[in-house]
Specification:
It contains eleven helices and 14 strands. By secondary structure, the protein is of the alpha/beta class. It has an eight-stranded parallel beta sheet, sandwiched between helices. Helix 4 links the parallel strand 5 and strand 6. Helix 1 packs across helix 6 and helix 3 runs parallel beside helix 4. The termini are far apart.
């Protein structure tokens, strides 16, 4: 197969770095737009990769970036997008308006493939703003009949540099116990390397055009179980105290009032009302269907949490 040329939006984050490394291994030529060069310069050493400072919310810029490319990959996403009905302005701009603009730009310049990052639980009628915005984002990604959008729905993603297990490991270094909202919520964490492999496989496989792919790891856990695992692998396992819903919502409200990204928000609690697990629905693909052997938390997390590297990365991002 000839070399592919793709644009990857939102590539400077945790998942993006792993995906770009995988695409480089496969010899895929990638263009990575970024608003600030400094936030992306760590990627500049990867082969087959070009960085360009650009405003991806400008339609003319999107068309220029996509012209002559084989596919667009969109990883842009946030966990907190402000308040509103059906969702806040941050969610609307990044999860709904941007996918619509990317799909329209692809149609305008003749790019037939669009690989779009969504999330398990995405539902336009879901209980949280996050889920509703992700559901509407999937519809936006598929709004152009000439563009085949492949939708990826991962559960929470773990791996070196993650914001999930690393955060809970860091908290247990300093807290005598962990008061935990949503302790019984169920997740199916998926390794970031497996997510990258799924994108890379789908990019090369025309049969995945237009498909929905749900990505979950080999095991389902409650949030309390994941918190305990994170503490154990970091060498600081603490007792987990599950909070009743009323207290959990008060805790989340207090976190929302603090500067910076909240540890948990009321909207996150609303998302946890539904299990974050692969449903294996008819017509929906999974990682196994792409030939990917799933990686367990036990095979990876002890190495990056136990060495402290993941904790150091988390504290640097949090300014601690």
């Amino acid at each position: 197969m000839r070399d592919l040329n793709v644009v990857v939006f939102g590539a400077t984050g945790f998942i993006g770095g792993h995906l770009l490394a995988r695409l480089a291994e496969d010899g895929v030529n990638t263009l990575v737009p970024t608003r600030h060069y400094e936030s992306a310069k760590h990627l500049s050493t990867l082969p087959y990769l070009d960085l360009e400072v650009a405003d991806i919310h400008d339609d003319a810029t999107l068309r220029r970036l996509l012209a002559g490319r084989d596919a667009a990959i969109n990883l842009v996403g946030v966990l907190h997008g402000g308040h509103g009905t059906p969702y806040g302005p941050g969610f609307r701009k990044l999860h709904v308006d941007l996918p619509r603009r990317i799909a329209a730009a692809c149609a305008d310049v003749g790019v037939a493939r669009y690989l779009h990052m969504s999330a398990l639980g995405a539902d336009s009628a879901g209980p949280s703003m996050y889920q509703r915005s992700k559901g509407d984002g999937e519809l936006a990604a598929r709004s152009q009949p000439r563009v085949a959008a492949t939708i990826f729905r991962p559960s929470v993603v773990f791996g070196e540099g993650d914001h999930f297990l690393t955060m809970f490991a860091s908290l247990q270094r300093y807290l005598p116990l962990v008061p935990l909202a949503g302790s019984g919520a169920r997740f199916q964490p998926v390794y970031v390397g497996d997510v990258a492999a799924a994108f890379a496989a789908a990019l090369r496989d025309p049969h995945t055009a237009g498909a929905t792919i749900e990505l979950g790891g080999p095991q389902v856990y409650t949030l309390a179980e994941l918190v305990r695992l994170a503490g154990r692998y970091a060498g600081h396992e603490r007792h987990v105290l599950g909070l009743p819903d009323s207290v959990a919502r008060l805790q989340a409200r207090l976190f929302e009032l603090l500067p910076g990204e909240p540890v948990i928000s009321r909207d996150n609690l609303d998302s946890m009302k539904t299990d974050n697990v692969v449903q294996k629905q008819t017509g929906v693909l999974t990682a196994e269907a792409l030939g990917i052997k799933l990686t367990s938390i036990e095979a990876v997390a002890p190495h990056y949490l136990g060495t402290g590297k993941g904790l150091d990365d988390y504290r640097a991002r949090a300014g601690r």
